[in-house]
Amino acid sequence: MSEQIDDLIKSHYAAGFVTDIESDTLPPGLNEDVIRFISAKKNEPEWMLEWRLKAYHAWLEMVEPHWAHVSYPDIDFNAMSYFSAPKRDEDRPQSLDEVDPKLRETYDKLGIPLHEQEMLAGVAVDAVFDSVSVGTTFRKKLYEAGVIFCSISEALQDYPELVRQHLGTVVPQKDNYYAALNSAVFSDGSFVYIPKGVKCPMELSTYFRINEAKTGQFERTLIVADEGSEVSYLEGCTAPMRDENQLHAAVVELVALDNAKIKYSTVQNWYPGDEEGKGGIYNFVTKRGLAHTNAHISWTQVETGSAITMKYPSCILKGDNSIGEFYSVALSSNFQQADTGTKMIHLGKNTRSTIISKGIAAGHGSNTYRGLVRMNPGATGARNYTRCDSLLIGDQCGAHTFPYIESKNPTAIIEHEASTSTVSDEQLFLCLQRGISEEKAVSMIVNGFCKEVFRELPMEFAVEAGKLLEVSLEGAVG
Amino acid sequence: MLSIKNLHATVEGEEILRGINLEIGPGEVHAIMGPNGSGKSTLGHVLTGREGYEVTAGEVTFMGQDLLALAPEERALAGLLLAFQYPVEIPGVSNMEFLKTAVDGIRKYRKLEALDSVSFMKLAREVCKRVDLDQNFLKRGVNEGFSGGEKKRNELMQMMLLEPHLAILDETDSGLDIDALQVVAAGINSMRDGKRSFVMITHYQRLLNFIEPDHVHVLGGGRIVRSGDKSLALELEDKGYGWLESEAV
Q: How many domains does chain A have?
């Protein structure tokens, strides 16, 4: 049966790479001039340039981390180009007819409306189409609520003090190798500010910004929820994303001030590489939230793409009674490698955290959960509950769990549960014998396995995420 | 209904079935008996197309179709159901979802209108009652944490919902106490409508007290060594399998 499963999970990801890009791209290489160029192109304030340069100098002193349970050839950082202007319209596909039919097939399977397909496929379209008007209404509503939601470049122009106050306060420039690199060269990203006591009237999604500005490979996101405010933010999209950059090193910082609540959901479906494991995106992301008193930060992620993922959305529970949550589904099939998990750093009293991680490995995939729960001396009465479940499909894949637990407060309570299960031949045969196809059966079992995490996603995305797993396992992506 | 001619099959290179011939007509109940290792369960698995069971010779026709040419799920859709001896658990997948998916598939295949969720719920609850299972079992994971008897009743529930043309019951009586056995037997008897056929694989005559077979076959060494009517089962109970063994070369 394992051969059939192998066939089943082979993802023919036809989105592939676009190679014929013409844009005013900097020649490969990284030095101070490059950083000055980027900062000048974006017309940034002087302090921002200095901030970037500081990060760059720190980065030069740092070494690439190799502790994760993943392997890949060395990255030549001087072979990369750190700036490319957005593609001109005439270089983009002129209509969906020019888009790879297999990519369109995937969009259809996921039930994505036509105009959104155009957006995702990067089709050059007239300014007048549905999503623009959706975007406009959307912006008006946010404006009325006092919510700021824009690109970080715009924020640096329009709200420089707000950015300056919070940027790097959760993930400092020197935090780690990739965060330092990102701080030096980040191209763009999102900025969100929710004023005091405001409950953001809608889910914020990068999706609405997709054709506005190309965010590029070093994306920087900063979300600030002021006291007593609430926001739900969704990053990514279930549709396969085209991107010509192999290395993605984003940084996301969340600041939840007293009594604020931030829910951050990610659906990531980047190019995972071909069946032999060639190509594919390296996703090395630093995501961290800082929770003040009574604040609540919740990370939910569904990771199905990328060749290699190293990602640990974390919470620093600084304020008393603050809450951190991490719900994750990570799928690695073919030759995908994922080393992902979270860090819950309990500093305040009665802080609470929950970790639910569901790892799925199929084909030759390798799936690792790596997590740290730390109870600092001040974390009196703090609690953590962790559950890590792994599901193996076929006999060539691997699942690993590396939980780190450090408790320096005797009153803190930490619970850890873990399980590993397989989709067995017997289970599949029971389904087949009831007339259920193997693809449907695998998808049903996998979806059942992920149920607790999907529950945490905004509703429409929960449905999409289920479909996404189905398509990812169907061998029909693209 | 089902016609098996000279069926040979191997498992991991070892020949387990060595020339089975069997004709099953519509509405008939056949009991297949035999000692451990005689190939009873193998026959059920070969007919339903389980991987690892390789047919090396012979033909099987099911309702006019070449059964062996069909994929396992196509055989199921065509109306062949195997009630498992050891039903497997599928944690996380609710019984309701599993049953609905299966029923949706078979109704589509039979070109029947799809059942909406409400009608299906109603139907599932009725069937639950018929097999004496609490409705909570619909919400639980498929067979997850079910006792042996509950698993067997769950199999029966699947059979009632899927309404197969031919059901193969693989040691459905094993692990059941007498009350559960009566419930299961009554359920099976309620599905005998003169058209639907049954193959009951069993060690013991006990089940046959509740479900009367039209034909009894004894398997030995991968062949049918003796066929008869109900009295053959009684004779076996009396004498054991030993007296037939000389015939199972």
A: 2
B49 CB neighbours in chain A (<8 A) are 432
Q: Which residues from chain A sit within 8 angstroms of residue B91, using beta carbons?
A: 421, 448-449
In terms of Cα–Cα distance, which of A263, A265, A204, A193 is closest to A226? A193
Alpha-carbon distance A276 to nearest alpha carbon in chain B (angstroms): 27
Cβ-Cβ contacts under 8 Å for A278 (sequence gap 6 or more): none
Whether residues A179 and A68 fall in one domain:
yes
Strand-pairing partners, residue A290, are A255, A316
Residue A287 domain flag: no
Q: At what angle do helices A2-9 and A438-454 cross, to 10 degrees?
A: 60
Average of per-residue pLDDT across A232-242: 70
Are A336 and A271 members of one domain?
Answer: no
**What does the CA dihedral A254, A256, A261, A263 come to, rounded to 10 degrees?**
10
The closest CB to that of B162, out of A4, A434, A449, belongs to A434
Find the domain containing A400 and state its range: 312-422
Nearest CB among A426, A432, A449 relative to B73 is that of A432
Among A174, A204, A200, residue whose Cα is nearest residue A191: A204
DSSP state of A459: H
The verdict on a CB contact (< 8 Å) between B50 and A429 is: yes
With an 8 Å Cβ cutoff, are A429 and B73 in contact? no
Question: Do A73 and A127 share a domain, yes or no?
Answer: yes
Residues A95 and A216 in one domain: yes
Same domain, A252 and A342: no
A-chain CB neighbours of B50 within 8 Å are 429
Give, in degrees to the nearest 5, the angle at Cα A366 between A365 and A369.
140
Nearest to B88 among A4, A430, A438 (CB): A430
Whether A17 maps to a domain, the answer reads yes
Q: What's the confidence (pLDDT) of residue A447?
A: 87
Domain end, chosen from A394, A422, A450, is at A422
* Residues A324, A216 share a domain: no
Q: Closest Cα to residue A234, out of A312, A298, A292, A188?
A: A298
Note whether A138 and A242 are same-domain residues. Answer: yes
Assigned domain for A438 exists: no
Reply yes or no on whether the pLDDT at B141 is more than 80. Answer: yes
A470 located within any domain: no
Residue A463 neighbours by CB under 8 Å, 6+ apart: none
ipTM above 0.85, yes or no: yes
More confident residue, A131 or A119: A119
State how far the Cα of A91 lies from the Cα of A263, in Å rounded to an integer: 37
- CA A61 vs. chain centroid, Å, equals 27
Q: Given this model, what pLDDT does residue A110 score?
A: 64
A230: which 2 tokens?
């609430």
Same domain, A382 and A267: no
- Tell me the two tokens of residue B190: 């309620």
Asked if residue A445 lies in contact with residue A473, where contact means CB atoms within 8 angstroms, the answer is no
